[in-house]
Write a structure and sequence with these properties.
Helix content: under 10%
Shape: globular
Distance between the termini: 40 Å
Oligomer: single chain
Strand content: over 45%
Number of helices: 0
């Protein structure tokens, strides 16, 4: 079955960096766009970044543009989210997602989701 496993979350001070990874299995990775979403306590899940099947056309939420970078390694079936200049408002559970029509900013475009990894940014 399809599995998406996130890793790399943790506790970091404001201004610090983290790199999230999402390893995919059970699917033909190059057939899927990949996205990152996040959900803070009491908030709706929100789009963070997405990338199409070949690593082109990355898109970002305005709140992370210029600080976060999404990338993928199709040889390793892995998508990454490099997060720099982290702020306390970036604190959330981060989820990766895969979708046949993915690479976009709507959750409905993604059929598979990981279990999430916690990112906590202290002030």
């Amino acid at each position: 079955q399809v599995q998406l496993v996130e890793s790399g979350g943790g506790l970091v001070q404001s201004g610090g960096s983290l790199r999230l990874s999402c390893a995919a299995s059970g699917l033909t990775f190059t057939s899927y766009g990949m996205g990152w979403f996040r959900q803070a306590p009491g908030m709706e899940r929100e789009f963070v970044a997405a990338i199409n099947w070949n690593g082109g056309n990355p898109i970002y939420a305005d709140s992370v543009k210029g600080r976060f970078t999404i990338s993928r390694d199709n040889g390793k079936n892995t998508v990454y989210l490099q997060m720099n200049s982290l702020k306390p408002e970036d604190t959330a559970v981060y989820y990766c997602a895969a979708g046949r029509n993915g690479g976009g900013n709507y959750a409905v475009m993604y059929g598979y989701w990981g279990q999430g990894t916690q990112v906590t940014v202290s002030s």
